[in-house]
Amino acid sequence: MIRAFLSSTALATSLIAGAAFADDQKAPEADVAGATGANGVAELVVTATRTAQPIEKVGASVTVLTQPAIEASQAISVVELLAQTPGVSFTRNGGPGTTTGLNIRGAETQHTVVLIDGVKLNDPSSTQGGFNSGNLLVGDISRIEILRGAQSTLWGSQAIGGVVNIVTAEPTTPFSSSIDAEAGARKTGYLRAGVGGAGDKIVWRVAGGYYTTDGFSAYKPGKEKDGYQNRGLSGRLRIALAQNVSAEVRSVYSKGKNDFDGFNVDSPEFGRTEELVIYTGLNFGLLDGRWNNRIGYAYTDTDRENINPARPAVPLTFDAAGKNKRWEYQGVFAVTETVSATFGAETEKARMRTRSPSVSNPNPAFATGKVGVDSLYGQLQAEVVPGLTLTAGLRYEDHDTYGSHTLGQASAAWALNEGNTVLRASFGQGFRAPGLYELFSEYGNLNLSPEKFDSWDAGIEQRFLGGKARAVATWFHREADNEIRYFSCTGGADPLCAPGGVSRWGYYSNVLKTKAQGLELIGEYKPAQGLVLSGNYTYTDAETDSGSAKGKQLTRRPKNMGNLSATYVWPVKLSTTVAVRYVGKTYNNDLNTQVVKDYTLVDLRASYPLKDGLEVFGRVENAFDKDYQTILNYGTPGRGAFVGLRARF
Asked: What's the CATH number where 589 sits?
């Protein structure tokens, strides 16, 4: 990190030397916590550049869900909320709390970086280092930004499919509080509350929630119900220490217990997951606000265990823990009125331990692993002519095991016709070193090579009919080499199936070249007062480009999916919504011989304000009781009705 510090200092010195060429410039805040315009309008985007930028200056494809949109969706699980946006699909081994994979533009779960308040959530002890979104509930979330495509320069080389940045609520008034309560089908209940305030010196908020459901059988033909319970807490505190100097701490904690079933069989097994996220930071401005800085420390700790009561002698079947520690510096410098630079340095340490006790070996040693990565990044953004914003950046990473790598990213956004037309294009590279589980677990392979990616997209956004309508079309393409997959041992003389003479079920191997390309379409129309029509459609051709499965569709990746919704606010202030989601057929295996059928779900939602700050709401999920699956032979919820009350004081 000495080299990283010297390099960032040299860059900062060069920028300071150029200060004579700009007068009275202000740098954007060096923050990733989110920005919302008046009345919840998504005027600014933070995740794309790590600073607040007008959306028409962002060359990447991004969707912003503000607090009014999140509340209107009445979603409980974050992945179900994300699935309403373009390019996003998910799979789940049963109900809430079970293993959940999130896919953006056909990329793998481990190729998406998930953040809470700017802190990466990827779990080093998970099978491929990705984040299991099964325990991620809406809770005290006020904003979500979904950035599609490679975003490696600012968010790390593994940000290949995209970035999901979740921002918890931050007070804007001296005192505020909120209570949400709902109940419904499958003996489901959800209660969450928060309180906070914003003053001249201190901004604070504390929130908590509890969710419970009896659920349904995770094994589709099964009879016994698999329930889920989750407890969560979050908090944030920011203190102004002096002019342009502040310190802050943010934390999110959750503890979940979920019942699940074995492979093609009912089972009394259950799992426990405990997750802790902590961020502490110091923010300070220099040169009268032209150079804003942030020094931070982020920590994540994920502990998981599975227990099988049917095996009383050795009930523990799985035990794992993953930890991340990251120090970071970020600076933002206003070079001129139209040129700004974002630069920083990070050092990250990750470690994991995992084991799977059995009746024959009730107390096995933990498989352990650790890794360190040092990074430097720099990005320059310039409005070269009125309306045309160019962004380019580089990231240098030095990996303990896989050495150094440099990645690039570039984008352009051109706002024409007073912003009614916006042209966008971006290109990005990706690099993912094998995860700790892929290297050091009982299925590990120390001879793995890094995965490499190239990704680009181009699109147009058009507003017309005096702002009543908006349409967006984006083409995307991604190529991957050395993708890592789990290889099953089914006999033969493969030495990796019996390392040291000990047989195992399988191992991880570099087996794939893949490619994905497709089209995203978004439409919104307000034909009359109180009526809003919106929809999106994504075509994704994601396939294997090597080996015996060449030309086959990647497993559990739908080629076609889309969402439609119609919302009408009646003169009596009753709001009603009909929402339709379609997911095309997928395949459950590499050779595409096991088909998972397509499905269409219809949800009905309504809300009514009883008085200022008090609202009653309700919904019917899967209104036509569609029988469907996201993974072959795993259950999904049928029709369910829910009702709730929302209060804001």
From this structure: 2.40.170.20
| 176: CB partners within 8 A, 6+ apart | 195, 196, 197, 648, 649
Domain count, the chain: 1
CA distances from 462 to 41, 472, 477 (A): 18, 6, 22
Phi-psi group of 156: left, alpha or beta (phi > 0 → left; psi -120 to 50 → alpha; rest → beta): left
Both tokens of residue 230?
């989750």
> From CA 428, how far away is CA 403, in angstroms rounded?
20
DSSP state of 593: -
Query: What's the rounded Cα separation, in Å, for the pair 280 and 237?
Result: 10
CA proximity to 553, closest of 83, 80, 159, 89: 89
Decide which of 18 and 414 is more confident. Answer: 414
Question: How large is the average pLDDT for residues 429-437?
Answer: 90
Q: Where are the beta strands (DSSP E) in 287-366?
A: 291-307, 316-334, 339-355
Q: What is the mean pLDDT of residues 51-63?
A: 89
Predicted TM-score (pTM) of the model is 0.89
Q: Which SS3 state, helix, strand or coil, does residue 500 take?
A: helix
For residues 208 and 192, the answer to whether their CB atoms sit within 8 Å is yes
Tokens in use for 523? Answer: 């439409």
Which two three-digit tokens encode residue 597? 């059928």
Partners of 621 in the β-ladder: 640
DSSP state letters, 69-105? HHHHHT-SBHHHHHTTSTTEEEEESSSTTS-EEEEET
- Residue 248: domain span: 2-648
pLDDT band at 342, cuts 50/70/90? very high
Q: Cβ atoms within 10 A of the Cβ of 39, count? A: 8
Contact at 8 Å (CB) between 142 and 169? yes
β-bridge mates for residue 368, sequence order: 353
- DSSP assignment string, 141-187: EEEEEEEES--HHHH-TT--SEEEEEEE----SSSEEEEEEEEEGGG
